[in-house]
Amino acid sequence: MQSKCETTQPSGVPQSAASAKHRGKGRFAALALAVLALTALLAGAAFFSLTRTLSQRVQPIEVALDAPAGSAMTVLLIGSDSQGASLDAAREGRASDQRADSLMLVHLPADRKDVYLVSLMRDLWVKVPDHGEAKLNAALALGGVALTVRTVETLLSLPISHVAMVDFEGFRGLTDSLGGIEVDVPRGFASYHLPGEHFAAGPQTMDGTHALAFVRERYAFGNGDFERVRNQQRFLRAVAARLVSVDALASPLKTRAALAALMPYVSLDKAWSAPDVAALALTFAKPGSRQVNLTTLATAGNARSANGQAIIRPDPQAIARLSAAVRTDRMADYFAALAAVPQVQANEQPTPAARVAPVAPVPPINAAEPVTSSIVPSRTLSKVPT
After folding, report:
1. Handedness of CA 158, 39, 90, 226 (dihedral sign)
2. Secondary structure of residue 224 in the 3-state scheme
3. Which of 309-322 are b and which e, b meaning 16 or more Cβ less than 10 Å from the residue's Cβ?
4. How far apart are CA 311 and CA 303, in angstroms?
5. Block mean pLDDT (10 aa), the chain, length 386
6. Half-sphere exposure of 143 toward its Cβ, with a 13 Å CA cutoff?
7. Residue 314 near residue 373 (C-beta atoms within 8 A)
8. Within 10 Å of residue 180's Cβ, how many Cβ atoms?
9. Within 10 Å of residue 343's Cβ, how many Cβ atoms?
10. Positive or negative CA dihedral for 93, 98, 100, 102?
11. Which DSSP string corresponds to 171-194?
12. d(CA 382, CA 272)
């Protein structure tokens, strides 16, 4: 298999629901389920057996999903850093003090040849159903996973097939269970989350604690969230490389330990059990070269909302292209277009002082619209080969 600042209180979220203790949360936990899928591809039938054993440890999510049955599948991955707080309210669709610190759309095509992952910036200024305009990550606090799904479906004009939520603490254990992960740090920085610690440029072997600090960091970078998402994807590539290494593949006990560390922190919608996830993964476990493709949805730049929040404006054209590609099961064309027109996003500029009007909902997408190289791409685009 071949395998992104400033935190401000979401509009309409009570102070208790956006407690300061959560403002420094990790933004990457959704990547954990992507790693779970990678592990599944490698472990095959053994993973299926193990997941059945661990399925009782996976927490159910109360959410109604209206996606039509079909061979292609679109999954919403939500990452939340609970820091010991209960995720029950979020899972049950009630207001809580949790925010969606990472959101990722995963598309599994009908041919199951590859996997496509698109990160959604948490500060996108969007319409939250029944709550007006707010940051995308506010939906989890306002109405749990169910409202987050509705918000993403409204933003992208797409139905979601399944949803999963992962607490970042499971990712810490996953890293440690693999004996550490080596990441090529692009530039050194002093850690905000681990005072006194400095991440040197170059290859660094990280334990779970240092890996979390690495993927959480935004204060050290001028482009904040955007660099953080890139670091999250760099880390995911490193985890994938570790999982396909000879010693990891040769040790079923190590694979079992990695999954055991992760599974208790995974929540799935009730219609999608852990064995179902494993059975799906088995369809990928066939001879031949496959890819996990990663990118970030392009945006229209940083701005200030009418009530003074630092936000990121959605790019309607970029959203339309992504929606059409998912709807028509043409994500391979979408990623090929991104690779053909690489450029730095306009939204990696300092936040302007100008305020913006509320963002209107995205109109329905024409399913027949072709995906061409006119897509405005993200700078973050990667493939992990095996």
Report:
1. negative
2. coil
3. bbbbbbbeebbbbb
4. 5
5. 43 45 46 57 53 63 77 89 62 72 90 89 95 94 92 96 85 85 93 93 94 88 86 81 62 67 81 73 55 89 92 96 96 94 53 38 33 30 38
6. 17
7. no
8. 16
9. 11
10. negative
11. HHHHHHHTT-EEEEESS-EE-SSS
12. 28
Q: How far apart are CA 288 and CA 113, in angstroms?
A: 9
Cα 247–Cα 251–Cα 257 angle in degrees, nearest 5: 115
Tokens standing for residue 79: 């990452």
Cα distance between residue 358 and residue 232, in whole Å: 30
Choose among 166, 178, 107: nearest CA to 325: 107
For tokens 């999963």, name the residue: 164
pLDDT of 364? 35
Distance CA 66, CA 154 (A): 13
Cβ proximity of 376 and 315 under 8 Å:
yes
244: which 2 tokens? 């396909």
The C-alpha atoms of residue 382 and residue 373 are separated, in whole angstroms, by 17
Distance CA 349, CA 189 (A): 20
CB atoms within 10 A of CB 155: 22
C-alpha dihedral over 269, 271, 273, 276, to 10 degrees?
-130
pTM: 0.73
Of 60, 80, 59, nearest to 138 by C-alpha is: 80
The encoded tokens of residue 96 equal 């809580």
Burial-class residue 253 by CB neighbours within 10 Å (0-12, 13-18, 19+).
Answer: exposed
Residue 239: which of 37, 35, 24, 10 has the closest Cα? 35
Residue 292 structure tokens: 């996990």
